[in-house]
């Protein structure tokens, strides 16, 4: 079993952090994992994306020809990557700022209003963690508590408030997806 | 065992410090900046550790040459254009038989090229690179775990053969994160007699690469050549993956080998018997191992992120014993496993030519 995920959005939306946190938690749950960021002369407001592969066997290529999941936080990312997603794959999109919908009919689409939910929580910066909550609920790649523990490790446990708002944000995204 | 999720560049830095590297000099260049950054932050953990951001790549290589002469374990790192600048110093270290590790996180070339992963520096790395009759050992890791292990080993080989050793990876290896476990480094074995630390009351020692007498110089060149022969004889490393009943073997190293493994999985799923021969040491090239494989496998496809450099070594190794095809993506282009699988499938289904 191997699952490949592409995260994409504006620089500054925490897209690379979404990938890092998934990679960390998958490692902590005993999976093989690779994390590959798109690097380059980027800036805040530019584009950012990363590919995470999670498997129960050695991962050959960290590059995804056909990702199983695509998580897009802005419109340009949706246009860039939607054609790559494998048939019967899944696209999660941040519907707060993406008004378009994928043109493909062979993929499942989840529109998560990350921006609005974040605003309700009082911190727009946690939009990415809200999306992670939705993604992990649906994909079930890692357990929710493993993810939260890894997230806390990455963010550093010094700031109690950060951990608290992230937990809330994750739960909000998690609960947004109905079974 | 403690498992860490770290990027390739960080892993090289951590492995070097654990292996006892105590002098690092470097100059920033993408995509290896995180390695310099890591050394800047962590070298101070090591007792007597020196991190130095030099004024140029040329300065960095000469600084490590000096520190190596004084007996320190040394490393410098750069990416393709920066490595070109270091060549004079690498040649000098080879001449003076100074151990040291040079990391090249390759990017697209020639010239300034771009900052995407590439494998265009194979010739430069395996043919010596600088002027004169010399070679450098070259390791080509393909996983983050190998980056850690081979970085540590590189220091040991540099000491054992008193020669500069190169880690040849690319932007993807440098940026990618994978779980890694750091092995316990071996204690250093490098005799004090090779270090310049003041003669005291003893005989004065010197290290030099300038040998004006051609007879002395010829003798020195043959001495180096004999050393390189021993390395060729004893130190080749490679991996064979699904080669036992393969009809075709892909020959690829580093990131290209990762992509090849992904392609092989797809090809095997559709019933094609395709394996992988992956050189881990590029110099010495595992020539005899590849030739031995040609007794079983008659068709090879060399895949490189270049226009075909290792291809020459594969031709030399196979010398007409097998059919060789090539697929390359130079200049920073990184193909997907699906693309490579399509290319291999085309070659695979072509009628095999008679090989004389």
Summarize the structure.
The complex is a heterodimer of chains A (179) and B (356). Chain A has 6 helices and 6 strands, in the order E-H-E-E-E-H-E-E-H-H-H-H.
What is the CATH class of chain A?
A: Alpha Beta
Strand coverage percent of chain B: 15-25%
Which secondary-structure class do the elements of chain B indicate? alpha/beta
- The CATH homologous superfamily of chain A is named Pyruvate-ferredoxin oxidoreductase, PFOR, domain III
Number of domains of chain B: 2
Helix content of chain A: 25-40%
Radius of gyration of chain A: 15 Å
Helix coverage percent of residues of chain B? 40-55%
Radius of gyration of chain B: 21 Å
Number of DSSP helical runs of chain B: 12
CATH topology of chain A, what is it called?
Answer: Pyruvate-ferredoxin Oxidoreductase, domain 3
> What are the secondary-structure elements of chain B, in order, as H or E?
EHEHEHEHEHEHEHEHEEHEEHEHEH
- Briefly note the structural class of the backbone of chain A: alpha/beta
Query: Can you count the helices of chain A?
Result: 6
List segments of chain B where confidence is low: pLDDT < 50 over at least 5 consecutive residues: none
CATH architecture of the largest domain in chain B: 3-Layer(aba) Sandwich
DSSP summary, beta strand count of chain B: 14
CATH architecture of chain A: 3-Layer(aba) Sandwich
* CATH level 4 superfamily of the largest domain in chain B: Thiamin diphosphate (ThDP)-binding fold, Pyr/PP domains
